[in-house]
């Protein structure tokens, strides 16, 4: 069973991985296993050799979010083709046909899964290849295997002959400037990269750009996991376990931090940072819209700490302080 106190994963550090699998055409490094009824927040790296192809297919369940941490990928999605590059995000809900060709050696496909349990799928496939290799070539067996995993392979020709279009014509590919919604204030900017409406209502994915000195405190315990992916800068995390234990560490670019339920904690930006909130339970899009409206129409509500706390809890927000140090 995975240790829930394993807060920090440095993606390049083998000692931080849960599992490492060399599959020949790609290497898989598992970071966090899925958790909860929605099997959320599973994260891993798949590192591809140049020319590796994932044939055109779709899933009946499961949400896939891919951060391209290095390299470039030819993406065929819904019958259109474009090249996604370092810094782009690809988000794929169920029944979205897709296929890939990895163009550069060592392309890093940093993966975030929901309701798909990809790591178990890899174990299943490798079990078959190791013990029943002949079955993997049996069309009837493979049809059953794929159906059990909710995957439907399409004609390869679709992927091969799909027209090349600008990335802007494939909304599943999100360039760095993309945002469904954008909010900003003194020293911070938030961009909605993946909406709750794209994740079966289970969560949102936000990009946060934060100045040095920004501090966020969660001093009220809450029942949700938090999952952060740091892509720029340095961020200090202080996590309280019970009444005596305390974990303090600094996460740098290329790190992932997971905070378990009911752990009080503080997030301090040491050096101007960009991070992604990959497991956002807060109904943050709705909350930010409503806060802006209240601030314009009834600002006195936000001056009352009791009313403000009640308002935040309405959206499952357990932030107790947000400020910028001089």
Automatic annotation (TrEMBL):
GO MF annotation terms: metal ion binding
Signal peptide: none
Pfam family, any one: Cupin_2
Cross-referenced InterPro entries: Cupin_2, GPI/OXD, RmlC-like_jellyroll, RmlC_Cupin_sf
Presence of keyword Transmembrane: no
Domain of life according to the entry: Bacteria
Keyword annotations of the record: Metal-binding
Stretches assigned to the Cupin type-2 domain: 48-102
Record PANTHER family: CUPIN TYPE-2 DOMAIN-CONTAINING PROTEIN, OXALATE-BINDING PROTEIN
Name this polypeptide is given: Cupin domain-containing protein
């Amino acid at each position: 069973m995975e240790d829930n106190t394993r807060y920090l994963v440095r993606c390049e550090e083998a000692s931080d991985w849960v599992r490492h699998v060399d599959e020949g055409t790609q290497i898989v490094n598992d970071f966090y296993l899925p958790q909860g009824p929605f099997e959320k927040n599973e994260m891993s790296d798949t590192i591809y050799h140049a020319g590796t192809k994932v044939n055109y297919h779709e899933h009946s369940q499961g949400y896939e979010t891919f951060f391209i941490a290095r390299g470039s990928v030819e993406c065929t999605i819904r019958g259109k083709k474009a090249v996604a590059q370092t810094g782009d995000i690809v988000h794929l809900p169920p029944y979205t046909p897709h296929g890939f060709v990895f163009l550069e050696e060592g392309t890093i496909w940093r993966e975030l899964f929901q309701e798909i349990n990809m790591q178990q799928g890899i174990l299943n496939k490798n079990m078959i290849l190791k013990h029943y290799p002949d079955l993997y070539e049996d069309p009837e067996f493979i049809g059953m295997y794929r159906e059990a995993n909710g995957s439907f392979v399409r004609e390869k020709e679709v992927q091969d002959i799909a027209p090349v279009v600008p990335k802007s014509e494939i909304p599943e590919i999100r360039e760095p400037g993309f945002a469904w919604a954008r909010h900003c204030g003194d020293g911070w900017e938030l961009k909605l990269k993946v909406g709750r409406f794209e994740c079966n209502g289970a969560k949102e994915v936000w990009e946060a750009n934060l100045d040095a000195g920004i501090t966020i405190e969660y001093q009220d315990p809450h029942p949700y996991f938090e999952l952060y992916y740091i892509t720029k800068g340095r961020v200090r995390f202080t996590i309280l376990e019970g009444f005596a234990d305390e974990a303090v560490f600094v996460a740098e670019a290329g790190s992932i931090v997971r905070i378990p339920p009911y752990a009080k904690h503080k997030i301090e930006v040491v050096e101007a940072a960009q991070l992604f909130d990959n497991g956002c339970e807060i109904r943050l899009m709705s909350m930010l819209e409503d806060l802006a409206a209240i601030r314009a129409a009834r600002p006195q509500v936000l001056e009352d700490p009791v009313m403000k706390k009640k308002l935040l809890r309405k959206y499952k927000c357990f932030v107790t302080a947000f400020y910028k140090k001089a």
